[in-house]
Amino acid sequence: MMWSSAGAFLMAAGVILGAFGAHVLRGRLDAYSLSVYEKAVFYHFLHALGILIVSILPRTGTFTENAAGWVCFLLALGIAIFSGSLYLLAISGNRILGAITPVGGVSMIAGWLLLGWYLLPRRG
Question: Is there a domain that residue 36 lies in?
Fold first, then answer.
């Protein structure tokens, strides 16, 4: 997969969703729901930027395309599940969606830990 493109498109989606929240949802959502939505946008942006950066690292010889692919996959999955569930929770008010949010958080954490592992110096 072309993770650089995916990262760029996810960044664009973050801008669109952030603008949607600021211009369309403000005034329609209560303070709690708006804060949930803003949290989703924040984590969406951070992890989309992570995908964009990690996808470029194989070009520097830091690690392989395959390694970057795994990290990017975990970060993208985290965006989909963590931010996606928060977007839906904020808009729908269905609090049960918050039950799957931690799965996305675990995916994000796993992506960053895997990146850290790949960046450890290798001896031998």
Answer: yes
Q: How many domains does the chain have?
A: 1
Nearest to 38 by CA among 108, 82, 90: 90
Residue 67, in any domain of the structure: yes
DSSP states of 44-106 as a string?
HHHHHHHHHHHHHGGGGTSS-HHHHHHHHHHHHHHIIIIIHHHHHHHHH--GGGGGTHHHHHH
- Alpha carbon distance 12, 118 (integer Å): 28
Range of the domain at 37: 3-119
Answer yes or no: is 124 within a domain: no
- Tens of pLDDT along 22-51? 999 989 999 999 999 999 999 999 999 999
Is 118 in contact with 57 (CB distance < 8 Å)? no
In this prediction the pTM is 0.94
Q: How many CB atoms lie within 10 A of CB 24?
A: 10
